[in-house]
């Protein structure tokens, strides 16, 4: 930002921001952004934030979210952005894990045509952790909020009155930039740590190369929420490092009407558009007549991220949204990788619908078998990265051992991504999905064990098993099998709703199971491990697979009967 302003690009629009209600849309130039970031940095210093302190950011998709991140970066205070859809519990556990002392939030945001509240979740989080010293609150909706004078500070006052002068501090390339929590195969989310220099190189290089960015003429829009890594690398750090002009939109795609995104593309003449397959499939279902009402001839490049894109969705995206002109880049990467690793390059790679194609220049990826040997073309295995890359995660916050165990212990000298993949006969990569206990629901990573723990924390639940079942819209959907405690009887008429709401309260609405089946037993191997594969068969209505290692195969019959009954309901 400072670099661009100094180079004379201060008047260039950094963000065309669009609030969900629409009438408050505004453009923010690089110079304005710099002023506000300096003010926020000064305000944070006033609140006691020093280099190295952690700051949690829990905000809707408003410009202040970007400002807050950059103000932290400016002070060398690593931020941890917590998705606004996460619960108070999820926020508190992240604050505890990285020991954040300040939370930046808002009274609320606009979603589906109405204000939704955010501050109450921070107040609730404060009852679960006493680490939070100050809460900086953006006034977005004007709704009433509870107030604690010792802790709560309005953003308008503290940031608005601060000086726009702040000398940018310099840090070592390995200085921590942020911690982003993501689900792993065990109960607690992992704090992925990204540092400053390499991460920025990775974000800027890929944003420029894969999106063929021409900063002087392109209008770029990544629809990801700032609470995920895609929002970090491809809405904030990559585009701003490259002096791009971006769109940022606060709300949902169907408010006030189902053509909202296409209207925004038309209005701002968006030329590069980056979104997720689950959104594309939703638009497909809504029908071609909706995008057809808008002039989207400005689009010249489309991107996809977050989950495998099925060929039907890919072709629809290319034809109906991209008018058959705009190539699609299917980009594979992870929170851990920090930036895109495998993707076609526009104008270079002849793409295939459904394949992320090849590792980009500088990245060495491969598909290997159980022994870590490269598989021949035409076969499948595990996706690995074999050489270091600029934006690789540095560690897991506070847990070097788990970092080593999770990513580096399976095969010597290779990064294990946790995904299965195949190489086709041309050697192009098709990512198949997770091979661990991580589900991918609408492009969001959710851990089966994390949801199981949430279910088991309910007083009526004795045991729970969660699987991800294939879902036409969301890629995978959360299906839970629950054994109730004796004392709970049949749990009562509303037990399923009660448990779904409990999961939403513990983790967030995105983790709510699509289906909960109350069962008398769970299928286990002789060593006591739950056989999730069988449960997945039931959830996907398949013939139940091999049950020879089950302790008691009558369990499966009961479960299958129960599933059939609940499907009839
Ligand atoms: C999946 C999101 C297939 C994959 C950037 C990965 C994909 C996980 C693709 C990371 C893609 C992401 N094709 N699968 N193009 N992109 N994935 O950390 O399973 O939220 O491991 O990062 O999403 O999810 P994360």
Please, could you describe this protein's structure?
This protein is an alpha/beta fold. The protein has a domain at 442-568: ANL, C-terminal domain (GMP Synthetase, Chain A, domain 3, 2-Layer Sandwich). It is built from 17 helices and 26 strands. The strands form seven sheets. The chain has a seven-stranded mixed sheet with strand order 2-1-13-12-14-15-16, with helices on both faces. It has a five-stranded parallel sheet with strand order 4-3-5-8-9, with helices on both faces. A four-stranded antiparallel sheet has the order 17-18-20-21. Strand 6 and strand 7 form a beta hairpin. Helix 10 (277-286) crosses helix 12. The longest helix is centred in the N-terminal third of the chain and has 17 residues, at 30-46. The protein is globular, with a radius of gyration of 24 Å. Bound molecules: 5'-O-[(S)-ethoxy(hydroxy)phosphoryl]adenosine.
